[in-house]
């Protein structure tokens, strides 16, 4: 029996050549990855938008708590987050502008806290839009979407 050089245990020359991926196989794998990414990315973007919205709502709830305490101490509502000694975390500030609007001349005095989305949050979460929380606990979203709160 004659053994060919470079071919081990009965391996033919044709079998020896096919050890890597062909261009077609690589293209198929690339197409599968692209399809998975196209399906997964929108879901990921929605998840990030919801997480950022929840963080903004947390800041708004904190401002409401501080506003009620401020009313007990000063007999009027604060007109800014600075008056409330409230800070907006950097990650929330990157996505939302949080404002406090008070009307102390009204009878009874009123206020609301508003979170206006910045780009790209305004695009990624357009179904909710600007969030508003009033002193009476009314929660609204300018986008009219469901489950914004």
Helix-strand layout with pairing:
Blueprint: H1 13-17, H2 23-74, H3 90-93, E1 96-103, E2 110-117, H4 121-124, E3 131-134, E4 139-141
Antiparallel strand pairs: 1-2, 2-3, 3-4
Number of H- or I-type helical stretches: 4
How confident is the prediction overall: mean pLDDT? 89
Report the radius of gyration as a whole number of Å: 29 Å
The secondary structure category is alpha+beta
The neighbouring-strand order within the major sheet is 1-2-3-4
Oligomer status: single chain
Query: Secondary-structure element sequence?
Result: HHHEEHEE
Biggest sheet details: 4 strands, antiparallel
What is the helix fraction of residues, given as a range?
A: 40-55%
Strand content: 15-25%
Overall shape: it is elongated
Outline of the structure:
This protein has 149 residues and is of the alpha+beta class. It has helices at residues 13-17, 23-74, 90-93, 121-124; strands at 96-103, 110-117, 131-134, 139-141. It is built from four helices and four strands.
Describe the structure.
The chain is of the alpha+beta class. The protein is 44% helix and 15% strand. The protein is built from four helices and four strands; from the N terminus they run αααββαββ.
Keywords:
15% strand, elongated, 4 strands, 149 residues, single chain, 44% helix, alpha+beta
């Amino acid at each position: 029996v004659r053994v060919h050089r470079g071919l081990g245990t009965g391996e033919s020359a044709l079998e020896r050549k096919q050890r890597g991926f062909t261009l077609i196989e690589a293209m198929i794998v690339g197409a599968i990855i692209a399809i998975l990414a196209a399906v997964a990315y929108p879901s990921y973007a929605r998840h990030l938008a919801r997480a950022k919205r929840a963080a903004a709502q947390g800041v708004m709830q904190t401002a409401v708590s501080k506003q009620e305490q401020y009313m007990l101490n000063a007999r009027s509502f604060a007109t800014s987050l600075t008056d409330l000694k409230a800070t907006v975390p950097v990650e929330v500030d990157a996505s939302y502008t949080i404002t406090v609007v008070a009307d102390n001349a009204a009878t009874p005095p009123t206020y609301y806290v508003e979170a206006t989305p910045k780009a790209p949050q305004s695009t990624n979460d357009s179904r909710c839009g600007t969030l508003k929380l009033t002193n009476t606990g009314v929660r609204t979203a300018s986008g009219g979407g469901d489950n914004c709160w």
